[in-house]
Design a protein that fits this description.
By secondary structure, this protein is α+β, with helices and mostly antiparallel strands. It contains 3 helices and 3 strands; from the N terminus they run E-E-E-H-H-H. Strands 1-2-3 form a 3-stranded antiparallel sheet, covered by helices on one side. Helix 1 packs antiparallel against helix 2. It is rod-shaped, with a radius of gyration of 23 Å.
Length: 104
């Protein structure tokens, strides 16, 4: 088996989910048949998705460094899928707050 016979890919899925794509060692000359896709929905917690990625890749015999990179990428994708909160207005402090209170 060549060193690049196995590969792991993480891509954003539908509805804030994640898709795990792994390369199979069989059918290396058939591009349509040499990949396996697993979808994790957006309703699952991050910890469950990361654990599932680790378990799947470990049971399939992927290298530990590929596992760590896959979890890091999944984490970055999940972070980017979160909705951003609006920044609250700055509160006046000290002298400026006292001056604003005197005006009111």
């Amino acid at each position: 088996m060549t060193p690049d016979a196995k590969a792991v890919g993480i891509h954003p899925g539908e509805k804030n989910g994640i898709t795990l794509i792994t390369k199979k060692t069989k059918h290396h000359n058939r591009p349509a048949a040499n990949k396996n896709e697993v979808n994790f929905g957006g309703d699952k917690s991050n910890q469950k998705i990361f654990k599932a990625i680790v378990n799947y890749t470990a049971k399939q015999g992927y290298r530990a460094d590929l596992r760590a990179e896959a979890v890091a990428r999944a984490s970055a994708i999940r972070q980017s899928q979160r909705t951003k909160k609006d920044t609250p207005e700055k509160k006046l402090r000290g002298v400026k707050a006292r001056k604003a209170a005197e005006k009111v």
